[in-house]
Amino acid sequence: MNVYVIADLHLSSDNPRLIDAFESFSEQISNGDELYILGDLFNYYVGVDPANEAQAAVRRVNSSVESRGGRVFFIHGNRDFLLNRYDAHYFKVKLLDDIAVAKVLGTDILLLHGDELCDENLLYFVFRKISRCFLLQRIFNFLTSFDYRTRIARRMRNKSMQNFAAGNYVKRMINNESARALMNRYGVKILIHGHTHTVGETVIDGCGRVIDTGDWNSDSFTYIKISDDNSGKPGLEIIQKKLS
């Protein structure tokens, strides 16, 4: 059994190379394997759109993984928090809580997108709290059209890209004190997250491991592979590959 963890793919119909990379990557997932997607699977998400090539590819890939005996799990990111349990069924994923503990080869591992642990401003956390409210999401979806939600999402994404290019972006390193507190609360020694787009690992208190999945971009993609290395603990690799 192998377990794979990815985040921050930001798939869109405008970038077919990343879609192809996701499809190729998924071919290694076989019977008994698990794939955990820690948010921002899509560049933005406002609802199911069968005409969207990225969404169609995700549904096709996950269906293929399921047919081979694999399982796919999903945690919300800050770009796809509107994906609900009905949508999760459509995309052939099991929707997990925003902070989830997965037992991987006998070891508890804490999984989350990561924005909860970044040193971001108060307004963002207020927005995050409101945007995750299921009732408010239902009201928002009921009162707005799909096209209107798409325009809002595109504006937000474009603004984010402009800030990124200007160097004024929300891309902070994980707050280690917050990570330590969260790991202690859940009683785990390994925390895996995305969001910061910076692949790497931090050791906390000499034994705790905080691991960033990295992202998928125009040059490369990164994922974490966890397998049994016969040591009594899961062997964990951070793998980075160039786009073909």
Give a description of the structure.
The chain is an alpha/beta fold. It contains seven helices and eleven strands. The strands form two sheets. A six-stranded mixed beta sheet has the order 4-3-2-1-10-11. Strand 10 and strand 11 form a beta hairpin. Helix 1 runs parallel beside helix 2. The model has no long low-confidence stretch (mean pLDDT 88).
Sheet with most strands: strand arrangement = 4-3-2-1-10-11
Helix content: 25-40%
The main pleated sheet reads as:
6 strands, mixed
Extended strand count: 11
Strand content range: 15-25%
The chain-level structural class is alpha/beta
Distance between the termini: 27 Å
| Element-by-element helix/strand order | EHEHEHEEEHHHHEEEEE
Question: What is the arithmetic mean of pLDDT?
Answer: 88
Radius of gyration: 17 Å
Number of helices: 7
Low-confidence stretches: none
Overall, the morphology is: globular
